[in-house]
Amino acid sequence: MIHSVLxxxxxxxxxxxxxxxAEPITDANHRLVLINGRWQKIxxxxxxxxxxxxxCLAESFAERYREDHPNDEIGIIPCADGGTGLIQxxxxxxxxxxxxxxxxxxxxxxxxxxxxxxxxxxxCAPESWPxxxxxxxxxxxxIRKVPAAADVPFLMGGLGEFLPLYTETFANxxxxxxxxxxxxxxxxxxxxxxxxxxxxxxDHMHFNAAALLEFGRRYYEAFRPLEKKDRxxxxxxxxxxxxxxxxxxx
Length: 250
Fold this sequence. Notes:
The protein is an alpha/beta fold. It has helices at about 10-15, 55-70, 85-90, 95-105, 130-145, 175-185, 210-225, 240-250; strands spanning about 1-10, 30-35, 40, 75-80, 110-120, 155, 190-195.
């Protein structure tokens, strides 16, 4: 059986780790990527949104998932897009609609088990970060309207400590991380994944390959306790408010 993971957000989810700094991918027969609605053996870059795409944190998340679920294949649905802000991911946007369309295609041959989110650098501007919690919460609740995504863990990674070395504006990353923690505390089946201690590429904007692979393992550790609450199979016609209440009751 194929279990699938949707990856969304901006460049650090798409992955900018240098391929030359990572070991070759192994176990490709059981880790898959959705391309044009069909599952292919995993390859790099998993999320080819830019020519700079490379190693992605979903690689190691999928590896750990496979270790714990040896009888299942794990498929990655790549929908991250570098440089994008929350406004571009808002309900009704092209990016979110595209991700939900890809999820719909993946549903035909897999079961969604998690959504991985990493985004926030673009929203570090003074006029944007105060709205981050409200905007991301609206996006999560829009995604939850899709039956396949209603009862799966939604994991959000923190921004890197190195960001202020790139630009003074990025010092606001601490506010984004605080917002992510608050969302994880109040929204059902949401988890926060810390990025403390993870290194960057020379650009001080993107996690390096080793950091991304460690980050993916951290995402998986955050996923494990939420997985026990996963797959509730709530009725597809259950109103959104009732669905949300059912998740909060867990």
